[in-house]
Amino acid sequence: MDEQAICSLIDMALEARESSYSPYSNYKVGAALIAGSGKIYKGCNIENASYGATNCAERTAVFKSVSEGERFINAIAIVGGPKDAEIPLPGFAFPCGICRQVLREFSDPDKLIVIVARSKDDYKVYTLADLLPDSFGPDFTDQ
Ligand code: THU
Known about the structure:
It is built from four helices and five strands; from the N terminus they run αββαβαββα. The protein is an alpha+beta fold. A five-stranded mixed beta sheet has the order 2-1-3-4-5. The longest helix is centred in the first third of the chain and has 15 residues. The radius of gyration is 14 Å and the shape is globular. Bound molecules: tetrahydrodeoxyuridine.
Protein backbone atom coordinates (compact mmCIF):
# COMPACT_ATOMS: atom_id res chain seq x y z
CA MET A 1 0.00 0.00 0.00
CA ASP A 2 1.35 3.43 -0.83
CA GLU A 3 1.42 6.28 1.63
CA GLN A 4 -1.51 8.05 0.00
CA ALA A 5 -3.76 4.99 0.21
CA ILE A 6 -2.80 4.57 3.87
CA CYS A 7 -3.57 8.24 4.58
CA SER A 8 -6.96 8.10 2.98
CA LEU A 9 -7.90 4.91 4.85
CA ILE A 10 -6.87 6.57 8.13
CA ASP A 11 -8.98 9.58 7.17
CA MET A 12 -12.00 7.33 6.76
CA ALA A 13 -11.32 5.62 10.09
CA LEU A 14 -11.20 9.05 11.74
CA GLU A 15 -14.51 9.90 10.06
CA ALA A 16 -16.03 6.61 11.29
CA ARG A 17 -14.85 7.39 14.82
CA GLU A 18 -17.15 10.42 14.85
CA SER A 19 -20.14 8.05 14.89
CA SER A 20 -18.87 6.06 17.88
CA TYR A 21 -21.59 5.29 20.40
CA SER A 22 -19.56 4.94 23.58
CA PRO A 23 -21.33 6.62 26.54
CA TYR A 24 -19.99 4.03 29.02
CA SER A 25 -16.24 3.98 28.27
CA ASN A 26 -16.08 7.40 26.57
CA TYR A 27 -13.46 5.79 24.34
CA LYS A 28 -14.21 6.38 20.66
CA VAL A 29 -12.91 3.96 18.04
CA GLY A 30 -13.17 4.09 14.26
CA ALA A 31 -12.15 1.63 11.58
CA ALA A 32 -12.12 1.60 7.79
CA LEU A 33 -11.37 -1.45 5.68
CA ILE A 34 -10.73 -2.20 2.03
CA ALA A 35 -12.68 -5.29 1.03
CA GLY A 36 -12.04 -7.78 -1.77
CA SER A 37 -14.17 -5.79 -4.24
CA GLY A 38 -12.10 -2.68 -3.55
CA LYS A 39 -14.98 -1.00 -1.73
CA ILE A 40 -14.37 0.68 1.60
CA TYR A 41 -16.47 -0.04 4.68
CA LYS A 42 -16.38 1.99 7.86
CA GLY A 43 -17.28 1.03 11.42
CA CYS A 44 -17.34 2.45 14.94
CA ASN A 45 -17.65 0.93 18.39
CA ILE A 46 -21.23 0.56 19.56
CA GLU A 47 -21.66 0.12 23.31
CA ASN A 48 -24.57 -1.17 25.33
CA ALA A 49 -25.90 -0.66 28.86
CA SER A 50 -25.30 -4.40 29.17
CA TYR A 51 -21.57 -3.89 28.58
CA GLY A 52 -20.89 -7.34 27.13
CA ALA A 53 -23.18 -6.57 24.19
CA THR A 54 -20.71 -3.93 22.95
CA ASN A 55 -19.41 -4.27 19.41
CA CYS A 56 -15.92 -3.05 18.50
CA ALA A 57 -15.31 -0.72 15.57
CA GLU A 58 -13.34 -3.33 13.62
CA ARG A 59 -16.10 -5.91 13.88
CA THR A 60 -18.73 -3.35 12.92
CA ALA A 61 -16.78 -2.67 9.71
CA VAL A 62 -16.19 -6.38 9.02
CA PHE A 63 -19.83 -7.30 9.61
CA LYS A 64 -21.04 -4.44 7.43
CA SER A 65 -18.81 -5.65 4.59
CA VAL A 66 -19.73 -9.34 4.94
CA SER A 67 -23.42 -8.47 5.09
CA GLU A 68 -22.99 -6.67 1.76
CA GLY A 69 -21.56 -9.81 0.16
CA GLU A 70 -17.83 -9.32 0.76
CA ARG A 71 -15.78 -12.31 1.90
CA PHE A 72 -12.26 -10.94 1.93
CA ILE A 73 -10.42 -8.05 3.57
CA ASN A 74 -7.22 -6.53 2.20
CA ALA A 75 -6.48 -3.77 4.70
CA ILE A 76 -7.92 -2.09 7.78
CA ALA A 77 -7.08 1.17 9.55
CA ILE A 78 -8.00 1.70 13.21
CA VAL A 79 -8.03 4.84 15.35
CA GLY A 80 -9.14 5.18 18.95
CA GLY A 81 -8.92 7.49 21.91
CA PRO A 82 -10.83 9.26 24.66
CA LYS A 83 -13.93 11.14 23.52
CA ASP A 84 -12.48 14.65 23.81
CA ALA A 85 -8.97 13.83 22.60
CA GLU A 86 -7.54 15.91 19.80
CA ILE A 87 -5.70 14.64 16.75
CA PRO A 88 -3.01 13.28 17.07
CA LEU A 89 -4.77 10.88 19.43
CA PRO A 90 -2.83 10.12 22.62
CA GLY A 91 -2.14 6.49 21.70
CA PHE A 92 -2.53 3.68 19.19
CA ALA A 93 -5.67 1.52 19.42
CA PHE A 94 -4.72 -2.06 18.67
CA PRO A 95 -7.46 -4.52 17.76
CA CYS A 96 -8.63 -6.74 20.61
CA GLY A 97 -8.22 -10.51 20.47
CA ILE A 98 -11.78 -11.17 19.32
CA CYS A 99 -11.43 -8.64 16.47
CA ARG A 100 -8.12 -10.21 15.42
CA GLN A 101 -9.83 -13.59 15.13
CA VAL A 102 -12.81 -12.12 13.24
CA LEU A 103 -10.40 -10.41 10.82
CA ARG A 104 -8.64 -13.76 10.39
CA GLU A 105 -11.87 -15.37 9.18
CA PHE A 106 -11.87 -13.14 6.11
CA SER A 107 -8.20 -12.66 5.27
CA ASP A 108 -4.88 -14.23 4.51
CA PRO A 109 -2.99 -13.32 7.70
CA ASP A 110 0.26 -12.78 5.77
CA LYS A 111 -1.46 -10.33 3.42
CA LEU A 112 -3.92 -8.39 5.56
CA ILE A 113 -2.48 -4.96 6.32
CA VAL A 114 -3.45 -3.60 9.75
CA ILE A 115 -2.77 0.09 10.26
CA VAL A 116 -3.07 1.65 13.70
CA ALA A 117 -2.90 5.41 13.71
CA ARG A 118 -2.87 8.47 15.95
CA SER A 119 -3.20 10.77 12.94
CA LYS A 120 -2.75 10.68 9.17
CA ASP A 121 1.00 10.97 9.58
CA ASP A 122 1.61 9.00 12.74
CA TYR A 123 0.82 5.38 12.15
CA LYS A 124 2.20 1.85 12.37
CA VAL A 125 1.71 -0.88 9.80
CA TYR A 126 1.48 -4.60 10.58
CA THR A 127 0.21 -7.73 8.93
CA LEU A 128 -2.46 -9.70 10.75
CA ALA A 129 0.11 -12.50 11.14
CA ASP A 130 2.25 -10.08 13.19
CA LEU A 131 -0.66 -9.52 15.57
CA LEU A 132 -2.11 -13.05 15.49
CA PRO A 133 0.66 -15.57 14.80
CA ASP A 134 0.00 -19.26 14.12
CA SER A 135 -3.68 -18.52 13.70
CA PHE A 136 -6.61 -20.85 13.17
CA GLY A 137 -8.87 -20.10 10.22
CA PRO A 138 -9.75 -20.75 6.58
CA ASP A 139 -7.01 -21.21 3.99
CA PHE A 140 -6.75 -18.25 1.60
CA THR A 141 -3.24 -18.96 0.34
CA ASP A 142 -4.50 -19.54 -3.25
CA GLN A 143 -6.19 -16.15 -3.53
N1 THU B 1 -12.89 -1.22 21.29
C1 THU B 1 -12.93 -1.27 19.93
O1 THU B 1 -13.80 -0.69 19.29
N2 THU B 1 -11.96 -2.00 19.29
C2 THU B 1 -11.00 -2.72 19.92
O2 THU B 1 -10.28 -3.46 19.27
C3 THU B 1 -10.81 -2.57 21.37
C4 THU B 1 -11.89 -1.88 22.10
C5 THU B 1 -13.93 -0.48 21.99
C6 THU B 1 -14.87 -1.32 22.80
C7 THU B 1 -15.37 -0.34 23.80
O3 THU B 1 -16.47 0.36 23.25
C8 THU B 1 -14.23 0.65 23.99
O4 THU B 1 -13.36 0.44 22.89
C9 THU B 1 -13.48 0.48 25.28
O5 THU B 1 -13.07 -0.81 25.45
